[in-house]
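Re: beginner question about structure tokens

> Can someone show what the tokenized structure looks like for a real chain? I only ever see the sequence side.

Sure, here's an example I had lying around. Input first:
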Amino acid sequence: MRRTASLVLLAFAVFFTALSPLMRWYAFPRLAKIPPGQYQDMVLEARPATLINYGTMKAERVPKVTIVQTLKGDVAASDRIEKTAGRDVVVWDALSYVAGPDGKMVSQIPERYIFDAHSQEPVHATGEMVDGDPVRRDGIEYKWPFLTEKRDYTYFDAQTRTSAPIHYKGTRTFRGLEVYYFEQTIPWTKVALPKKMPVKGITPQTVAKMGTTRWYSTKRMFWVDPVTGAPVNGEEIHKEELRGGDLLPGGGRVTAFAGHVKMRADYVDSTVALVTSQRTLVLLLTSYLPWGFLALGAALLALSLHLEARGRRSGAGPAPTGRAAPTAPEAPLSPA
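And the corresponding structure tokens:
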């Protein structure tokens, strides 16, 4: 019986020991992915801010500017692209909507972002765009890969339609989470005017005919959970200017928008709560189960060897105590 139990335990020990690396290196890369139908929104604010008054074409100090960002997964588009891409694909329709202190639209820029559901690498397909302009992304946007590393990444900037390094600046603690802090600075760059302008009758084409151009610079900061790759906080020191042309008095320059943009506190709280729950699932596949299976396999192996050793000891007979004493010779028969 002990021999049978020992062999069964040995089989389970081998099974769980082999399952440990399979869980980490085979199951996790296939199971961890962004769902194609995900929807999320985020509200950011700049308090106070500088905003252009298109009536006077002068910059004014305002109490706040609000930026609403939405990301909506297009499942049908994902399924269609997956047939030709040969991998799991996520299609996000994103919108960045900027509103002034009166709630009226300042600008809005739509995007279509197509990427690999597992690695977050961009997937180039028809429909990839920013504000209606076709683009070909290089690097990440919005989210870092699962198990983010302590290194620089290439990050896509939607305003300039180009990619540049975003630098790892160290490990920090944010709301009880250990996070990686990243920074990217975009120098002053001439960028396109939004297709939808806030003033009726003014279009990017009419502004261009007047010789006025739009320039942009920003310093963006992200606090990223390294397990899920999701930012738990984001900020930007954002600046936009209109320069030259007949639209501006004297053909100089004027600040169109400037401010320190931060996530609203309630959205920070909900983001941290969501990331905390999701990181448990990732750690289950990358740490808890692999190490747990390995420890269980070692324990079962030790128990199997213990039972085998006990079985061998009990199967052997008692050891001899010494040489047997000689028997006495039989006495001769007496004559009758």
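Each token stands for a local structural state, so reading them left to right follows the chain. The longest strand covers residues 39-53.
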